[in-house]
Amino acid sequence: MASAATFSLVTQVLCLSLCFLSLGCSAFTAEDYSDALDKSILFFEGQRSGKLPSNQRLNWRGNSGLSDGSSYHVDLVGGYYDAGDNVKFGLPMAFTTTLLAWSVIEFGSSMPNQIDNAKAAIRWSTDYLLKAATTTPGTLYVQVADPNMDHHCWERPEDMDTPRTVYKVSTQNPGSDVAAETAAALAAASIVFKDSDPSYSGKLLHTAMKVFDFADKYRGSYSDSLGSVVCPFYCSYSGYQDELLWGASWIHRASENSSYLSYIKSNGHTLGADDDDYSFSWDDKRAGTKVLLSKSFLETNTEEFQIYKAHSDNYICSLIPGSSSFQAQYTPGGLLYKASESNLQYVTSTTLLLLVYAKYLSSNSLAVTCGSLAITGETLIAQAKKQVDYILGDNPAKMSYMVGFGKKYPQHVHHRGSSVPSVHDHPNPIPCNDGFQYFHSGSPNPNVLVGAIVGGPDNKDNFADDRNNYQQSEPATYINAPFVGALAFFSSNTNPK
């Protein structure tokens, strides 16, 4: 018995040693990534606005916003609440949809058990965006609820009694940024549904083209048109040019219509093609556009797209330690760090770009040259994996930043619906100010918002599990959306070589 135990111990030590020496060592199994993928998609059910379907899995939620738009004689029921409040913001909702669709387009084959749920998450948004885009000619409805009024209350969406004011952009009050992002979302989603629902796909693409024409013809920022109801919440700090190029790029990919190729060639230089940018978010699409358009150069050697491959390489080189142009900041524990507020949104979006670009490079047996350093797709995958594993719990705090995943995860999430007792457990309304007793409570949230990824730790890997600390503890749809693609990839490629 003793010799058997000794042999077993030696074997374990050898296996651990080999694991640490191996580039393929993983803190998580394929089953872990699949579980996280399931949860990351489930989160979107917790953000749903409107009448919930019979197959709703997060059962603590109820119907909400059933009269959205009615006082303006339009139907704006549905869509998603962006984060921990009860506002439907059009710009982040559209961006969320684009990245969910991109995740499915690139890595849908790696999520066979979740593909229907992922499509349902996309469709919940596109059904709403279609209504917002087609109800009134020359108009795009871009927001429901006054955020300033909404944020004065702490109430679950089922009890909302704050003004459900409707905001729009139009030919007189343009919003090229939100309109072009909406076009990108509809175009990307049209690719997702092309085979499974060709009629719906066609409607999405046709609407995308019309919304893009509106965005391009009536140029202006929605921040200027709508002011304090979108700023500082989702102010278009980067301007609208990046969204125009992003939107045209997605319609080009979805339609293969040569007119969008011509548009990109003619307008690219004035819309940011020559700019290097090192973050990718709901506000700034430049890095994502470069990676998206680089595919055409890598696969067909389209000369006009070489510039996008070059700028994609610059972006990648900025992320890789040891590269001559390395400039990214990482925490001591290895997490990419961009901002003190909701930093994980940049981590998940970057991770998706790393994996998408690795796929494009590997498909064409190419690498990125960073000075004297050759960066292969394998290196990009390894870099992405470090970020994914950190979020899931392989970090100094041993904390999973995905709610409901792992043994230790945030309990005091900055989220109204999650922190206030469910309408099923407490049927009587909980008015605006009465909800703050739950906001200030030291108790864990009574409703687990499974799959939510919170804002995350600071630049020293410290995290305060505090509902009042929205910078770190608030989830958002656009944090989760790109992570769906990353988790799908690693659920099928646990130890990529």
Explain what this protein looks like in three dimensions.
The structure is a single chain. The chain is mainly α. The protein is 48% helix and 5% strand. The protein has helices at 2-21, 30-46, 90-107, 115-134, 147-150, 176-192, 198-217, 222-226, 241-255, 258-267, 286-300, 306-319, 344-363, 377-392, 416-419, 436-439, 470-473, 477-492; strands spanning 88-89, 139-144, 166-170, 329-330, 336-337, 368-370, 373-375. The chain has a three-stranded antiparallel β-sheet with strand order 1-2-3. Helix 3 packs parallel to helix 6 and helix 11 runs parallel beside helix 13 (344-363). The model is unreliable at 1-24 (pLDDT under 50).
Please identify the structural class as seen in this structure: mainly alpha
Helix content: 40-55%
Number of strands: 7
For the residues shown, what is the average pLDDT? 93
Residue stretches low in confidence (pLDDT < 50, at least 5 long) are: 1-24
Secondary structure layout:
Elements: H1 2-21, H2 30-46, E1 88-89, H3 90-107, H4 115-134, E2 139-144, H5 147-150, E3 166-170, H6 176-192, H7 198-217, H8 222-226, H9 241-255, H10 258-267, H11 286-300, H12 306-319, E4 329-330, E5 336-337, H13 344-363, E6 368-370, E7 373-375, H14 377-392, H15 416-419, H16 436-439, H17 470-473, H18 477-492
Antiparallel strand pairs: 1-2, 2-3, 4-5, 6-7
Helix pairs in contact: 2-18, 3-4, 3-6, 3-18, 4-6, 6-7, 6-9, 7-9, 9-10, 9-11, 11-12, 11-13, 13-14, 13-18
Give a brief description.
Helices cover 48% and strands 5% of the residues.
